[in-house]
Amino acid sequence: MTVTIRPAERRDTVAVADLIEEIERFYGSTEIQPLEERRSQVEEALFGSPPLASALLVEDEAGDLVGLAAYSFLWPAAGSSHSLFLKELYVRGTLRRQGVGARLMDELRTLAAARPGCSRVEWMTDHDNPGARAFYKSLGFAEFDGKIVYRVDTGTT
């Protein structure tokens, strides 16, 4: 199957909101936000002023969204440089193990390298996600265990 990888556009808002529901279900969530709420949050995150994030989308031959890489630039990284932080990488199950995830990672590395002052690409995965860990290892990426992640909920969604 041929796929296209491209930046998200405003016209993709509803399709991205649908894909986020799929991602939530993939991770085991049973409490899914209503579509309109998800749509509004996608619009604000990707197209607000200023945008909170960016996304590369994977589109199949039929024009359906079948994957995404959501990322932001963070500062500071090494010294006064910045980094591209990959928040979510997702490819629909029917396209996994066909090189789509690897293409997304290549695109992210290209984006980071083309941006002046961007010194690295960073991301996380859960310890109990052996599939993701094996995927990143297959691409030649070593696990970095120098950080501990903290998280606190704000009480809003």
TrEMBL record:
Domain N-acetyltransferase, first and last residues per copy: 3-157
Q: CDD domains this protein is in? A: NAT_SF
The record's listing under Pfam families reads: Acetyltransf_1
Q: Which domain of life is it from?
A: Bacteria
Which Gene3D superfamilies does its entry note? Answer: 3.40.630.30
Q: Which UniProt keywords apply?
A: Acyltransferase, Transferase
Protein name as catalogued: GNAT family N-acetyltransferase
Organism this protein belongs to: Streptomyces virginiae
